[in-house]
């Protein structure tokens, strides 16, 4: 459910970026979101080995590849393995928060901003309520992503 809610939030934001926008504008926004996503995931990658936590889901059963944690982690994005470890920095919160920031900064109507924000907050709550991540993981991931977004956009306003 956490993956589905994240993908729905991303898909709706992408559709909105391309529908009703000026020609070329969606690609500028997409480039910025991908750059900030990379920076956020780089920060997460540095925190992963330092902040291993037990899974918030007590019923979790690991599905490792030949007992190797390295290969299990490498094959997780393809659904070929599953670990029961959690990390301090939620990777699911990154694209959801970036989608929310898109709605907040790149849409003109108040209704769209409210819709995008509520959709994103609901997806973050689903992640916490389904015990996919701890609340702190999601809060920290979303908070850092907002800070990275704001710093980048502040940098755009500084004269060269």
Automatic annotation (TrEMBL):
Locate the transmembrane regions by residue number. 6-21, 70-92, 113-133
How does this protein sit in the membrane? Multi-pass membrane protein
Q: Where is the Sphingomyelin synthase-like domain?
A: 83-153
What coarse category fits the chief subcellular location reported for this protein? Answer: membrane
Q: Which UniProt keyword terms apply here?
A: Lipid metabolism, Membrane, Sphingolipid metabolism, Transferase, Transmembrane, Transmembrane helix
Protein origin, superkingdom: Eukaryota
Query: What stretch or stretches form a coiled coil here?
Result: none
Q: Name one GO biological process term.
A: ceramide biosynthetic process
One Pfam family of this chain: PAP2_C
MF (Gene Ontology)? ceramide cholinephosphotransferase activity; sphingomyelin synthase activity
Where is this protein localized, as stated in its record?
Answer: Membrane
Q: Name one GO cellular component term.
A: endoplasmic reticulum membrane
Q: What is this protein called?
A: Sphingomyelin synthase-like domain-containing protein
């Amino acid at each position: 459910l956490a993956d589905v809610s994240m993908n729905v939030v991303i898909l709706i934001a992408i559709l909105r970026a391309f529908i009703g926008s000026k020609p070329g504008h969606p690609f500028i926004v997409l480039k910025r979101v991908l750059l900030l996503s990379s920076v956020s995931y780089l920060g997460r990658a540095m925190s992963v080995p330092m902040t291993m936590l037990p899974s918030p889901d007590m019923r979790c059963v690991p599905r490792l590849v030949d007992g190797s944690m390295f290969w299990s982690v490498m094959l997780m994005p393809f659904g070929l393995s599953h670990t029961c470890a959690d990390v301090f920095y939620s990777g699911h919160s990154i694209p959801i928060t970036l989608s929310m920031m898109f709605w907040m900064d790149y849409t003109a109507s108040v209704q769209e901003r409210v819709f995008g924000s509520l959709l994103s907050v609901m997806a973050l709550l689903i992640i916490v309520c389904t015990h996919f991540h701890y609340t702190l993981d999601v809060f920290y991931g979303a908070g850092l992503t907002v800070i990275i977004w704001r710093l980048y956009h502040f940098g755009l306003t500084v004269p060269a």
